[in-house]
């Protein structure tokens, strides 16, 4: 019940009036049914006793009123529930996005975490509101059940017991069916995701080049259909099985219901029961069964909801940040902007991508990380940027503002202004600053050619006039973001991977020029760039194996030297590698 109290509190805190209104409406709805029963009985008795026409008309009017009230109440409760869903759903969705934005980046590569997010989207909009609805239904049905039971018990305890047994039997079937269905859904969840993935592959624009060039449409479609058939066959088998069981069970229930009806009719024949009592009992039977179903439904649903609520609660509970925020006096004294002590990092259960890294970035120092593919440079850059939380070790930071540009930068289908301005959202409407950033990022001359300039939409998903930039142009937009902020500490992970040779040289010149005096950590494959840095950090298999200036490392004649010479021999300029 802990989890129910947690989320009910959230709903009450945000929408107290709506919550109380729904509760009152449900209690009213469930109380109207037994009232209807009493009125029917009174009408029959009055007719039988040939009471005054005015009294009979009054009773019929009251019955019509109760009946109409029931329908009006239903429409209102739907309206209130929708209101609740929209208001609280929007707030919960924000909590979810907030949690995703704060989660360790590598979590977003984990299938389980992605599945949790997928489920949470449903939880936000439907499952939690449904759970609130269930609680109200339950409370209302308790009230209704008690009133119906009181009416029936006056006519005979045995009738009430018989109806309760009938209700429990009905419920046994529903419970079995629901349990098996839930088990099936859980087993199918992963398969459903695979099917969704395959379907998305077929419609995603970015895959169309490969699909057409390699002519893999049929191959992919066979895969998708295979998965679709697999899921459909299992669903169909389930439906067939439960249709047969359902028919047999309904037959049994109809038999039992009619047997009870026969007993009641026999009671009328023996004059132990009057006709109005027979009508009240036969209608009351339905209300008792519905009541028991509502209880059982609530408890079985509560079991399911418990899982979703707990999972959602866990998902939106903030994680501890990887790097302690704020200035660090000890680092400030040592003129250090960042220090890593014995830092290791693993992606899930994989072998460590970083092993026992010790690194200090001095104020105003430029460091270039070099090494073979997969040696851990990008991972280290992400740990330094606070995007990945070290598995072991400590990262200490001492800088007011930091900025970063990554090789796997985001392409937002927004305007150029937004794409660049997000580098510092506080200045997203500052045209001069944005233009300056695009000049430093070497993309201003391209943007100047667009008729709408900074207002040009990048990408064509939402705007037919949108511009499709080349990969290199996109990279320049991403780099311009980094120039938006006057940061003390800048991390560049392969900022030139998609640039042509001249743009690349210009880009590095710009970094040197505009970030002079700032602390810069740069990941680059272009080893000639390393020579310009204050310090070179050479990585291999997730470890720092050599550290020093270009001259020092060349003299050492170790890993860096051979890496440098190997790259240098592809350039005629020999030692003058760019
Ligand atoms: N998201 C991920 N999940 C699992 N393993 C990963 C992930 N990203 C990187 N790795 C692994 O971590 C190791 C280090 O990768 P990283 O990208 O940091 O290397 P890198 O030196 O930047 O490589 P490159 O020069 O190719 O960009 C590699 O073995 C890689 O396979």
UniProtKB/TrEMBL annotation:
Major site of localization recorded for this protein: membrane
Pfam family name, one: ABC_tran
Residues spanning the membrane: 20-40, 52-69, 142-170, 242-269
Location of the ABC transmembrane type-1 domain: 22-304
Gene3D superfamilies in the cross-refs: ABC transporter type 1, transmembrane domain, P-loop containing nucleotide triphosphate hydrolases
GO CC field: plasma membrane
UniProt keyword DNA repair, yes or no: no
InterPro entries attached to this UniProt entry: AAA+_ATPase, ABC1_TM_dom, ABC1_TM_sf, ABC_transporter-like_ATP-bd, P-loop_NTPase, Type_1_exporter
GO MF terms, alphabetically ordered: ABC-type transporter activity; ATP binding; ATP hydrolysis activity; ATPase-coupled lipid transmembrane transporter activity
Membrane topology term: Multi-pass membrane protein
PROSITE patterns tied to this protein: ABC_TM1F (PS50929), ABC_TRANSPORTER_2 (PS50893)
Protein name according to UniProt: ABC transporter ATP-binding protein
Subcellular compartments: Cell membrane
Keywords: ATP-binding, Membrane, Nucleotide-binding, Transmembrane, Transmembrane helix
Organism the protein comes from: Paenibacillus riograndensis
Residue stretches making up the ABC transporter domain: 338-566
């Amino acid at each position: 019940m802990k989890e129910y109290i947690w989320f009910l509190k959230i709903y009450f805190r945000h929408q107290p009036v709506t919550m109380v209104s729904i509760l009152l409406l449900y209690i009213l709805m469930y109380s109207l049914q037994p009232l209807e029963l009493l009125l029917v009985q009174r009408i029959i008795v009055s007719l039988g006793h040939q009471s005054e026409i005015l009294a009979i008309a009054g009773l019929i009017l009251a019955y019509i009123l109760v009946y109409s009230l029931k329908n009006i109440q239903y429409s209102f409760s739907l309206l209130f529930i929708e209101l609740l869903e929209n208001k609280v759903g929007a707030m919960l969705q924000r909590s979810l996005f907030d949690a995703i934005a704060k989660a360790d980046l590598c979590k977003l590569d984990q299938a389980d975490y992605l599945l949790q997010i997928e489920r949470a989207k449903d939880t936000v909009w439907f499952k939690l509101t449904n759970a609130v609805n269930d609680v109200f239904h339950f409370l209302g049905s308790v009230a209704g059940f008690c009133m119906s039971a009181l009416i029936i018990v006056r006519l005979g305890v045995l009738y009430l017991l018989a109806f309760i047994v009938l209700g429990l039997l009905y419920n046994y079937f529903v419970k079995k069916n629901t349990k098996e269905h839930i088990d099936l859904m859980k087993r199918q969840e992963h398969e459903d995701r695979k099917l969704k993935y395959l379907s998305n592959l077929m419609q995603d624009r970015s895959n169309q080049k490969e699909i057409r060039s390699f002519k893999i449409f049929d191959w992919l479609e066979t895969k998708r259909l295979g998965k679709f058939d697999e899921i459909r066959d299992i669903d169909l088998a389930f439906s067939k099985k439960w249709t047969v069981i359902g028919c047999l069970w309904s037959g049994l229930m109809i038999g039992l219901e009619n047997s009870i009806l026969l007993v009641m009719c026999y009671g009328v024949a023996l004059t132990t029961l009057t006709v109005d009592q027979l009508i009240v009992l036969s209608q009351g039977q339905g209300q008792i069964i519905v009541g028991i179903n509502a209880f059982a439904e609530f408890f079985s649903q509560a079991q399911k909801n418990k899982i979703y609520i707990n999972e959602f609660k866990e998902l939106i509970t903030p994680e501890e940040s990887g790097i302690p925020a704020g200035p660090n006096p000890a680092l400030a004294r040592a003129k250090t902007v960042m220090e890593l002590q014995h830092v290791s990092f693993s992606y899930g259960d994989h072998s460590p991508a970083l092993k026992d890294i010790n690194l200090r970035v001095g104020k105003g120092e430029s460091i270039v990380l070099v090494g073979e593919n997969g040696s851990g440079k990008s991972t280290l850059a992400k740990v330094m940027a606070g995007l990945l939380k070290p598995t072991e070790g400590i990262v200490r930071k001492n800088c007011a503002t930091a900025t970063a540009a990554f090789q796997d930068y985001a392409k937002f289908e927004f305007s150029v202004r937004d794409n660049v301005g997000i580098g510092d959202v506080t200045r997203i409407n500052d045209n001069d600053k944005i233009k300056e950033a695009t000049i430093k990022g070497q993309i201003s001359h391209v943007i100047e050619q667009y008729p709408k300039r900074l207002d040009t939409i990048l990408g064509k998903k939402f705007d037919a006039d949108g511009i499709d930039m080349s990969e290199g142009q996109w990279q320049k937009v991403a780099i311009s973001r980094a120039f938006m902020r006057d940061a003390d500490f800048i991390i560049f992970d392969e900022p030139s991977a998609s640039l042509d040779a001249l743009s690349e040289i210009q880009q590095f010149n710009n970094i040197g020029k505009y970030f002079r005096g700032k602390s810069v950590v740069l990941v680059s494959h272009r080893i000639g760039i390393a020579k310009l840095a204050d310090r070179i950090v050479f990585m291999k298999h997730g470890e720092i194996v050599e550290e020093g200036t270009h001259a020092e490392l060349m003299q050492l004649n170790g890993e860096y030297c051979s890496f440098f010479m190997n790259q240098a021999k592809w350039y005629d300029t020999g030692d003058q590698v760019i």
